[in-house]
Amino acid sequence: MFKVLWLFNHPAPYKIDFFNQLGEQVDLTAIFERTSEGDRGKAFYYEKAKNFKEIILSSLKLGNYNNFTNAIIPLIKKGHYDIIVINGWSTLSEMKTIRYLKRHKIPYIFAINGGIARDNEPQWRKRLKEKYLPGAALYLSPDPFSSTYLTYYGVDEMRIRLFPYSTIFKREIQPRSLSAEEKQTLRQQEHLPAGPLYLSVGSFIPRKNDDQLLRIWNKLTPEKTLLLIGDGPEKERFQHFIEDHKLHNVLILPFKPHDEILRYFRMADASIFLTKEDIYGHVVNECLSQGTPVIASENANSARHLIEEGKNGYLVSLDKEDEIMKVLEKPLTPSFGEEALKTAKENTIESMCQAHLKIFQEFLSL
Question: Quick check: 310 and 127 in contact, CB under 8 A?
Answer without folding.
Answer: no
